[in-house]
Amino acid sequence: MPVDTDDLIILGRVSSVYGVKGWVKIYSYTEPMDRILDYGEWLLKQNGQWRPITVSKGRSHGKGMVAHFEGCDDREQARQYNGAEIAVPRERIPELPEGDYYWYQLEGLQVVNVQGTILGKVDHMMSAGASNDVLVVKGDADSLDRQERLIPYVPEIYVKEVDLEQGRILVDWDPEF
User: Mean of the pLDDT values across residues 95-119?
Assistant: First the structure.
């Protein structure tokens, strides 16, 4: 099955096997983490290839998730999925309210402070627990320097504007931080 990889959103990965009946542990990037189960059919990347797989059951387990794939009924079968990335096509991702963004939408955007200084591009996002998410901004050839900056994603305080069309985030952030 040919898959347009530019059209995929990575939702998590299979971290290990769980039990003896073909279940696997899932590391979910979704918020809340059990939202990953809402998609039913996932695409798994194994050996550089994406292939569809149906989740027959899944649930929260401790601080993570476990899932069972249709037709996978023992530990050895489940082992083949270790490390596989989990994705779904972009069109299956629900739209967010105005002003809310998925992490993948922010990654790659240029970050400029209110003084007009280019700080770099959002390399990736990370969670800081219950408080807020963090923009990991890496300097590039167009920026003030090559420094990496961690900027709290706090709208109206530090993040003044996100402009997806212009590919830019305006922040109130001192480059010395």
Answer: 94
Q: What is the pLDDT of residues 120-145, one digit of tens each?
A: 999 999 887 767 899 999 999 999 99
SS3 48: coil
Do 169 and 122 form a contact (C-beta atoms < 8 A)?
yes
pLDDT of residue 29: 87
Q: What is the pTM of this model?
A: 0.75
CA distance 43 to 39: 10
DSSP labels for 1-22?
----GGGEEEEEEEEEEETTTT
Which residue is it, tokens 């480059």?
175
- Ordered structural domains, the chain, with CATH: 5-92 (2.40.30.60), 103-171 (2.30.30.240)
